[in-house]
Amino acid sequence: MRFPKVCLEFLEHVRRLVQHVHSKTGSPVDVGEQMFLTILNVITSMMWGGTLKGDDRTKIGGEFKQVVSEMTALIGAPNVSDFFPSLARFDIQGIKKKIHVRFLRFDRIFDSMIEQCLKMEQGKEESHDSKDFLQLLLKLKDEENSKVPFTMNHLKALLMDMVVGGTETTSNTVEWGIAELMNNPETIRKAQEKLDRVAGKDKNVEESHLPQLHYLQSVMKEVLRLHPALPLLIPHCPSSSCTVGGYFIPKGARVFVNVWAIHRDPSIWVNPTEFNPDRFFNGKFDFSGNDFKYFPFGSGRRICAGIAMAERMVMYESATLLHLFEWNMPDSAKLNLDEKFGIGLKNNPVKGAGGSIGGAANLKRQKGSLGGNSSVPYRKNMEMTN
Ligand code: HEM
């Protein structure tokens, strides 16, 4: 499958992120929010970049951002119905009703995208031009001899999974990474040294450099060990009763896997609460989900569908921010990395709204400020204030 100009678009969105951070010289920057916007742009470019252009795309992007944020906050909000299923039909907190309203808004956006895409395709000869994800899915839907039914509802559900599952998880991971690194000056120095060696001191990081950035890969693994974006994965539900490790799990039970606790289990990890990327030295552990000591993307058939994309986005964006800017705390202060639990793990917003994927483990969202003069630097000074 070929996606149209995804790489170029991706670079363009990251470039815009850098410009934004740079333009904020001397004033606060909300790293999490900027990352969220960048990643949302990358994912929507991939989904319908070939269908929607210019002002239309900006307009839909803005509306989409709002619905995604509201949706992820609602999905993660603690819901009495989950703990007392007999009360579910009363929807005491009104969460189901609110989610339904957002579903309808998603549906309306998808309908208008699909209509536009179909109009574009009408009367066109079958071409070999690269297509966006939506165009490919519409083609798949029309294939009559397909053994697995693929309806319009399936198509919309897939688009929604990608956008809801891929945005905050990825942006929170980059944000936690920068925060952890800022509290560990030795680690940040080491990561920047390796970046200088691989990318060149006064050159941009390129996608082709990523496989050589072994230390940054260990940093990403360590960030996802301490702060798995979905600390309880996504709730699983067995289709038939079974026994696992001696425990009987009835059909239809809601199963939460506490990967957060496993990643901090002292019988598995030495000094589990310490941020130490070296524990992943030499490619130790991967994201395949085959080792139940470490599986931030889940495991088995329902493992994350976006691992390759997530890895690339987290690595490239972190590498770019670390290579271009100097990150440090004023007066050697430490960032507060407090967490708050829910389905998603994110930092506690200090200012502004920060819809988290759930009322999750949250660290304080910090504001960064760019110091120094406003000329484009090789590595600008970045400060975050508590
Ligand atoms: C650092 C970033 C990310 C993390 C940590 C992450 C983590 C996860 C986890 C833990 C699950 C549930 C697995 C399970 O329950 O066993 C999941 C599911 C999923 N993720 Fe991700 N994810 C990330 C980024 C992405 C991206 C970028 C996309 C796509 C654009 C994506 C698409 C999905 C989808 C579609 C599912 C549902 C898969 C299914 O139920 O079959 N994720 N992810």
UniProtKB/TrEMBL annotation:
Residues bound to heme: 304
Family according to the record: Belongs to the cytochrome P450 family.
Species assigned in the record: Papaver somniferum (Opium poppy)
Claim: Iron is one of the keywords in the record: yes
PANTHER family, per database record: CYTOCHROME P450, FAMILY 706, SUBFAMILY A, POLYPEPTIDE 4, OS08G0547900 PROTEIN
Name of the protein: N-methylcoclaurine 3'-monooxygenase
Pfam family, one: p450
Pathway annotation: Alkaloid biosynthesis; (S)-reticuline biosynthesis; (S)-reticuline from (S)-norcoclaurine: step 3/4
EC numbers for this chain: 1.14.14.102
Location of this chain's protein in the cell: Endoplasmic reticulum
GO terms under cellular component: endoplasmic reticulum
GO biological process, one term: isoquinoline alkaloid biosynthetic process
Keywords: Endoplasmic reticulum, Heme, Iron, Metal-binding, Monooxygenase, Oxidoreductase
InterPro entries: Cyt_P450, Cyt_P450_CS, Cyt_P450_E_grp-I, Cyt_P450_sf
Known catalytic reactions: (S)-N-methylcoclaurine + reduced [NADPH--hemoprotein reductase] + O2 = (S)-3'-hydroxy-N-methylcoclaurine + oxidized [NADPH--hemoprotein reductase] + H2O + H(+)
Region described as Disordered: 364-386
Cofactor or coenzyme needed: heme
GO molecular function: heme binding; iron ion binding; N-methylcoclaurine 3'-monooxygenase activity
UniProt superkingdom: Eukaryota
Major localization listed first in the record, in broad terms: endoplasmic reticulum
